[in-house]
UniProtKB/TrEMBL annotation:
Location of the region described as Disordered in the Swiss-Prot/TrEMBL record: 1-41
Subcellular location(s) of the protein: Cytoplasm, Perinuclear region
InterPro entries in the record: ARM-like, ARM-type_fold, TPR-like_helical_dom_sf, TPR_rpt, UCS_central_dom
Ranges of Low complexity composition bias in the record: 21-31
Gene3D superfamilies reported for this sequence: Leucine-rich Repeat Variant, Tetratricopeptide repeat domain
Provenance organism: Sus scrofa
Pfam family of the protein (one): UNC45-central
Protein name: UNC-45/Cro1/She4 central domain-containing protein
TPR repeats mapped onto the chain: 137-170
PANTHER family to which the protein is assigned, alphabetical: FI21225P1 (PTHR45994), PROTEIN UNC-45 HOMOLOG A (PTHR45994:SF3)
Length: 989
């Protein structure tokens, strides 16, 4: 029993515990047994505890043998190992069950549950004792032990504090309290560590009992937030996080999969080694396959993850990895190709969702072509063409939702066309382009020849895909033997699907003027017949678009009309009718927008269209729908209505020369004059065009190509042309939408968007137009307008906008300096055009509040200060105001510049006197401040000024009307008096 006694000694450190406890009288019982007749004293004595007042009872965990009935019955049973027994002693001990007498308490029951490591029951029994006697230190101590084992340290410390308050001299309680306080501190430190947070979050996420709870949702959000920081991502990665995230992916629950994918984005973002390690654990095929799930949110998250992985791997290819990174990533180019190969395989897999296929195409569009034509390496594009061109064409030639075909969406074919166009544009030489043509033609021939009617339809659909993308390849495919004839023949088919495929191919084929002329001569009657006789609206609307396209072959040239007068207006009226028909699906109504995009070259159609408020609202509503392929057509129609395409007035002499040579001279429609355009712009603004365009800009789709972004930029620039319209554009979110357009797209599109931003910044409060951090994103597009390849108007507007931004805060001035705008601004200070020169000087005046700019003026060996002094004496009053303001600012901030003013020019005194004598109060104020700064800078400078006519001028100004000029003049005179250069008059003035 010695081992058991030692364990029980620690359960309650009371005065009777341990070796000093009273022992049983008489002879010792058998080892492991108590005599049946023994009372509670004997029982307690055999346990080494002080004799309790009450009889005790514990639940038996094994069958008990009842003894003859007495006042106190004792039962014997054997328990398993209690743990903590002495070395060499048996851990099995005999415990007893005491049946309590009526009304007795049971304070020893927690002891036995603690011995059996059943801490929940021990805590429960101790709580019962405490409820009956709040001062029972035994029960409090036992409960604190149970709570400590259960990990509830905050509750355990409360019980120990109560014990210490009841027995303040008990050193065991004090030591236990110190120990548990140390445990709490250690636990707090651990819980506040990132490792603990990661472990907790994964425990919650992987706990099946927490399914769908708010706790689980919060844990997933916290995990994603933690992974966004590099330190947190590294902690997750090193804590076996990728394997745990794989388990989340394997659950198949959308919420958990989203959390796992978004966390993986943080782990892989801009980190090549973690990216390769993640791919190694998860498997490239596994990651790519998530794209194909039906859940759109999960598919998009997987698309984002793959995009991040591609970026990390491409950066690795660019850097070539050395040192530690090189030891981890042997060949990032190989990993990159494996990923792309899996994406290409996904394109033609049956069972992949249409959204997943679109996301795969989007990824290929983003990662395969070169970012810049200046990059000489297009090997990845060539590899994709060789390995996957047929797979891309298979998607492009598929029909939406046919039985036995690939699952595609309404946007799949358009995405395939864009990818094909990107690949074709990325080719560098004729040999590469010829290989592209050959592969396309071989694929089309394989379907066209020997595959029956279904094969011909597939081939024609593929030709349509090429015509919408790399049209050169499409035109060559259209010239293959029998293709054009089959298109014309299938237009007369009785099967609706066959007619749809053929008519769409005919519409796309009419894009080139040469082809349009051929179809005008041979296919107009066929299209008219389809439009009039077909009972299917899907066929009629496509035939109508074909007629619209042919009717607009002359573009904006008023003198070139393909159809009779009034025919285009009738076609436009029908297009607007179908556009406003809510009963039609979005895919069919898209064709009505296509028709209007062509017909709005005609100014008469534009005027009728903007007058039709219902049609405009239907157009804007359609642009916000899931039908993304309509975006380019909507943007084209808006460009036509606002006349925001490039147009140069022809040289009259060249026009006369062309007429003399009997050459065709384009004529402008009378309704395309500026007054008509302004009226149309106001009607579009009233109809809500800005909010619609803002939604279009936010679209995350490959359909929003660089060309489409350029069209939107052109429209925005036309909308902000008039000052009174800019408030409406800002109120409807135009400023926010212009920033991404100015940062991404074609060079022309970015320039147009930046110019629109400049116009908004000039006339509106920038802090209201671009709230929050967005205002700092405006600086880079504005600085881009300062380049010499931009027009003078764009330079001027950029300078004015930067002037407004530079006057707001030091952080904005630092942003302008960081974008290296100061040298360009200085260059424009020498511009011959007076308005540009003035704007540059005003911008420099505001930038002079920055320390770095002051250092530039203070540096020796340059004429910056001289230029400001000379400009302060120019005839242009606005230029003088800007230069004098900069001079006043610099001399206030840097007094050392005051002594250099007389050195830069001999006319400095005349210039200052002219400023002081100016009738313009602003110029007077600037001159007075400059003089005050020079007087305060040194007594020698003050003496020079007081010996000139400046003294008399200052005296007059100081006696003038109370204001900043009079105060500055008086301060200068007061400083001169202080130097002893002059004496105050008798009246104290």
């Amino acid at each position: 029993m010695r081992g058991l006694r030692r364990r029980l000694d620690g359960l309650y450190p009371g005065p009777g515990s341990g070796r000093n406890a009273p022992g049983p009288s008489g002879s010792a019982p058998e080892p492991g047994r108590l005599p049946p007749q023994a009372g509670e004293g004997a029982v307690c004595s055999s346990l080494g505890l002080p004799g309790p007042r009450f009889v005790h009872q514990a639940k038996a965990r094994a069958p008990t043998r009842h003894l003859p009935s007495q006042a106190t019955h004792t039962c014997y049973m054997s328990f398993g190992p209690l743990g903590g027994g002495g070395s060499g002693e048996s851990r099995e001990q005999l415990c007893f069950l005491l049946v309590p007498q009526k009304g007795d308490d049971q304070p020893l029951r927690p002891v036995f549950f603690l011995l059996q490591e059943d801490y929940d029951k021990a805590e429960s029994e101790a709580s019962k004792a405490i409820d009956k006697d709040g001062g029972d230190v035994k029960a409090l101590y036992r409960r604190s032990q149970a709570l400590e084992k259960l990990g509830r340290l905050d509750q355990a410390v409360l019980d120990l504090q109560r014990c210490v308050s009841l027995e303040p001299k008990n050193k065991v309680f004090q030591e236990a309290l110190r120990n548990i306080a140390g445990q709490i501190q250690e636990k707090v430190r651990y819980m506040s560590s990132t490792d603990a947070k990661v472990e907790q979050m994964f425990q919650i996420l992987l706990d099946p009992q927490e399914k769908g709870t708010e706790k689980k949702q919060k844990a997933s959000q916290n995990l994603v937030v933690l992974a966004r920081e590099d330190a947190g991502a590294e902690k997750i990665f090193r804590s076996n996080g990728v394997q745990l995230l794989q388990r989340l992916l394997d659950t198949g629950e959308p919420d958990l999969m989203l959390a796992a994918l978004r966390t993986l984005v943080g782990i892989c973002s801009e980190h090549q080694s973690r990216t390769v390690a993640t791919l190694s654990v998860l498997g490239t095929r596994r990651v790519v396959s998530i794209l194909g799930v039906e859940n759109q949110a999960v598919s998009l998250a997987a698309c984002h993850l793959l995009q991040v992985m591609f970026d990390a791997l491409k950066e690795g290819v660019k850097k070539g990895f050395r040192g530690k990174e090189g030891a981890i990533i042997v060949d990032p180019a190989r990993e990159l190709k494996v990923l792309i190969s899996n994406l290409l395989e996904l394109l033609t897999e049956v069972g992949v969702s249409g959204q997943g296929r679109d996301n795969a195409l989007t990824l290929l569009i983003k990662v395969v072509p070169r970012k810049s034509p200046k990059d000489p390496n297009n090997s990845l594009t060539l590899w994709v063409i060789d390995q996957g061109l047929k797979k891309i064409l298979e998607v492009g030639g598929s029909v939406q939702d046919p039985p036995g075909e690939l699952t595609v969406t309404a946007n799949s074919r358009m995405s395939a066309s864009i990818l094909l166009s990107k690949l074709f544009d990325d080719l560098r030489c004729d040999a590469e382009r010829e290989n592209f043509h050959r592969l396309c033609e071989n694929y089309i021939k394989s379907w066209f020849e020997g595959q029956g009617l279904a094969g011909k339809l597939r081939a024609i659909q593929t030709v349509s895909c090429l015509l919408q993308g790399p049209c050169d390849a499409g035109n060559r495919a259209l010239e293959l033997n029998g293709v054009m004839e089959s298109v014309i023949a299938l237009c007369a088919s009785e099967q609706e699907e066959e007619q749809l495929v053929a008519v769409e191919a005919l519409i796309h084929a009419a894009g080139k003027a040469k082809r349009a002329s051929f179809i005008t001569a041979n296919g107009v009657s066929l299209l008219k017949d389809l439009y009039k006789r077909s009972e299917k609206d899907r066929i009629r609307i496509r035939a109508l678009v074909g007629l619209c396209k042919l009717g607009s072959a002359g573009g904006t040239d008023f003198s070139m009309k393909q159809f009779a007068e009034g025919s285009t207006l009738k076609l436009a009226k029908q297009c607007r009718k179908w556009l406003c028909n809510d009963q039609m699906d979005a895919g069919t109504r898209r064709w009505a927008v296509e028709g209007l995009a062509y017909l709005t070259f005609d100014a008469d159609v534009k005027e009728e269209f903007v007058e039709d408020e219902a049609a405009l609202k239907a157009l804007f509503q359609l642009s916000k729908s899931e039908e993304r392929s309509v975006l380019f057509a909507v943007a084209s129609a808006l460009v036509n209505c606002t006349n925001s395409y490039d147009y140069e007035e022809p040289d009259p002499k060249m026009v006369e020369l062309a007429k003399y040579a009997k050459q065709h001279v384009p004529e402008q429609h009378p309704k395309d004059k500026p007054s008509f355009v302004r009226a149309r712009v106001k009607k579009l603004l009233a109809a809500g065009v800005v909010s619609a365009m803002t939604c279009m800009v936010k679209t995350e789709s490959p359909v929003l190509t660089s060309s489409c972004r350029e069209l939107l930029s052109r429209v925005f620039l036309a909308l902000v042309e008039e000052v009174e319209d800019r408030g409406t554009v800002v109120a409807q979110g135009g400023g926010k939408a212009l920033i991404p357009l100015a940062l991404e797209g074609t060079d022309v599109g970015q320039t147009k968007a930046a110019q629109a931003l400049a116009k908004l910044t000039i006339t509106s409060n920038p802090e209201m137009t671009f709230p929050g951090e967005r205002i700092y994103e405006v600086v880079r597009p504005l600085v881009s307008l300062l380049h010499l390849n931009c027009s003078g108007l764009q330079n001027f507007e950029a300078l004015m906008a930067l002037t407004n931004l530079a006057g707001i805060s030091e952080r904005l001035r630092q942003k302008i300096l960081k974008e290296k705008a100061v040298p360009m601004i200085e260059g424009y200070m020498f511009e011959e055009h007076e308005m540009i020169r003035r704007a540059a000087t005003e911008c420099m005046c505001n930038l002079a509040m920055s320390k770095e700019v002051q250092d530039l003026f203070e540096a020796t060996g340059n004429d910056r200060l001289k230029l400001l002094v000379l400009y302060s004496g120019e005839d242009d009053e606005l230029l003088r105001r800007a230069a004098a303001g900069g001079l006043a600012m610099l001399t206030s901030m840097r007094p050392s510049l005051c002594s250099r003013i007389p050195q830069v020019t001999t006319h400095w005194l005349e210039i200052l006197q002219a400023l002081l004598l100016s009738p313009n109060q602003e110029l007077q104020h600037r001159g007075a401040v400059v003089v005050l700064n020079m007087v305060e800078a040194s007594q020698e400078m003050a003496s020079t000024l007081m010996e000139s006519e400046v003294l008399e001028i200052l005296s007059v100004l100081a006696k003038g009307k109370e204001g900043p000029v009079a105060r500055a003049a008086a301060a200068s005179l007061g400083k001169a008096v202080e130097y002893g250069l002059i004496k105050p008059s008798q009246d104290g003035e």
